[in-house]
């Protein structure tokens, strides 16, 4: 008997009646046309049932990898199964970069875009913001193309996979650039009250890593442009690390992208974990809540006050900034945002209790949960956080009148 199919974290066992692995877009169209219910599985890095189905699960890993760079338009077009790891070095070698990336490169571009995946940086929007066109295999098997500026474009990009299968996606490129990464240790929590904005805008991308224990933020990761000033030895009371660190302080720092201020290309510094460090499974569970930037300090304070209720279940938490965008289902829709991310130990009951404690502490700030991670906020409350929710439902009903691309989680959160 073959092994059951699980997500990267191992907390979800997928339940499809059949798994399809088309080798061409024409084959994919036939599969979609013939299916009653269908979902796409990207690289399986989501922590909930967003990708699951009890009917047809389609994986695009066997599609021919496409990396088509258009030097006139400064874009790259990739197939629906490509990962950031597949494309990053090729972009750099061609003189290009992506504006921002997530913490690891092993996720598919479309899977990341669909769930409003993000990195950090006051001027950096989530990864969906680099999309300028995509092709969608809709319920009838027909391919519909969308470009930035089209009606409904802002609805189709962050789709949670509920509108069709993205067979091809085109991303905006910028000239390649260098980054230097420095880690600072033991930032006093008091610095948040007085210096939060200065801290988060200190460099191209800044992450705060904390175990929510005592009065210390364990690490500040500063990813600065390589062309900028030399890093300082101290940052608002935090001291520069003199060895490489993993986000979880006790873990092996040599598995992170190069730190200690060594300048290198964007794709070898902006991810926290390098391309060659592929972990096929991970013993952890993640959740994340986003609040409006203007509420960040008060939200931080509320979590600090409640930290004893959840820090025991935690490996590490990461605080990042995401600039506002206009995608209807984006967690940064209409507001500059701060994400409070939590990497939990792989103990389900303790994790759920801790997730609830975090959500409760953040409730006054109307947190939007990450679509791809664990959350317990009620569907009604989530919908109320998205002013364009009704437009998304209307678009989905038009493109997929029979709900072919919906699974129980999507039905529950968006449609019921
Ligand atoms: C270790 C780790 C680190 C992470 N770091 C970050 C981070 O830094 N920032 C962040 O925001 N998130 C982060 N995440 C979450 C991750 O970015 C999301 O789970 C993302 O969706 C994963 O992409 P995937 O390819 O694994 O997609 P899956 O989990 O396989 O699928 C996600 C969704 O996309 C849909 N989908 C995938 N491909 C297609 C397609 N071609 N057409 C239509 N729908 C499609 C699926 O149906 C599903 O609904 C992390 C997760 C892990 C495990």
Question: Would you write up a description of this structure?
Answer:
By secondary structure, this protein is α+β, with helices and mostly antiparallel strands. The chain folds into two domains: 110 residues, Uridine Diphospho-n-acetylenolpyruvylglucosamine Reductase, domain 3; 202 residues, Alpha-Beta Plaits (2-Layer Sandwich), CATH 3.30.70.2520. It has ten helices and 20 strands. The strands form four sheets. Strands 11, 12, 13, 14, 15, 16, 17, 18, 19 and 20 form a ten-stranded antiparallel β-sheet that branches. A five-stranded antiparallel β-sheet has the order 4-5-9-7-8. Strands 1-3-2 form a three-stranded parallel β-sheet, covered by helices on one side. Strand 7 and strand 8 form a beta hairpin. Bound molecules: flavin-adenine dinucleotide (FAD).
